[in-house]
Design a protein that fits this description.
255 residues; alpha/beta; 38% helix
């Protein structure tokens, strides 16, 4: 399979290549990977800065939730990349990259179901998604306008609970209390991999997983934090690989 890879907030594509090196090696050489970098410069993530001192001035984000126009631009840029550099069979994305990927795929699914011609033709070839420590996807909380272009998480109750920047904990609590109330918004095979000690995006991955078709999702929770399983923990690495392989196998079977 040919995957598009999206990095986390305050990192870049080169860092993501390093972060996923062991994981990609374990998956085998039958898959290929391309990378799309964010366009918004931002400080390098302090948690990884000591490991990448040469990257101190090269952190990027895909969008800034406080600047809604950047979210729209990120969706358009992702669509353009998929069209010009694709086709891609899947998306492998970490942290904010996973948040963007999920938002894009949900928007594409909504577009294709509401009209005969999708506004996101780049999404047509995507057969699966691998979400690593993903955030809750975004959508417009109301029709965007110059006077009120506010963004909100995809689920209105969680958006209300998350208004004070406690998105992760509030979302997790809401999802745990009423998981059946979460709508299924993504109908393609997905893998959801996150750390039980993730303090950067606490609770958001479980919400993202519940937005995806239950019988087509694979979930693996490792003992780490906000990270991509690698050489530091063989058990975490193998668990992540199993979930990804299960997802790829299902995607191939369905198509």
């Amino acid at each position: 399979m040919h995957f598009l890879c999206l990095h986390g907030l305050g990192t870049n594509s080169r860092i993501l290549q390093v972060q996923t090196a062991t994981l990609r090696h374990e998956l085998g050489d039958s898959h290929t990977f391309d990378y799309a970098e964010g366009t918004l410069p931002c400080p390098i993530d302090p948690a990884i800065a000591p490991y990448f001192p040469e990257e101190s001035d090269e952190g990027y984000a895909y969008f800034d939730p406080s600047r809604p126009s950047t979210y729209t631009a990120a969706l358009e840029q992702l669509e353009a990349f998929l069209v010009t550099e694709g086709p891609f069979d899947g998306i492998l994305a970490f942290s904010q990259g996973a948040q963007l990927a999920a938002s894009f795929l949900i928007a594409a699914a909504g577009s294709s179901s509401s009209s005969s011609s999708s506004s996101f033709p780049g999404a047509r070839s995507i057969r699966c998604a691998i979400f690593l420590s993903g955030g809750i996807p975004y959508q417009w909380s109301s029709a965007p306008s110059s006077s009120s272009p506010a963004l909100g998480p995809a689920l209105t109750p969680i958006a209300e609970a998350a208004a004070d920047n406690s998105e992760g904990a509030a979302a997790a609590a809401a999802a745990a209390a009423a998981p059946a109330a979460l709508p299924v918004l993504l109908h393609l095979p997905t893998a959801h991999i996150w750390g039980q000690n993730d303090t950067s995006y606490p609770g958001t991955s479980v919400v993202l997983s519940q937005l995806c078709r239950p019988e087509w999702r694979a979930v693996f929770v490792h003992e780490g934090g906000h990270e991509i399983p690698g050489s530091r923990s063989r058990a975490s690495l193998l668990g992540a690989v199993r979930a990804i392989r299960q997802t790829i196998h299902l995607a191939v079977t369905l198509h």
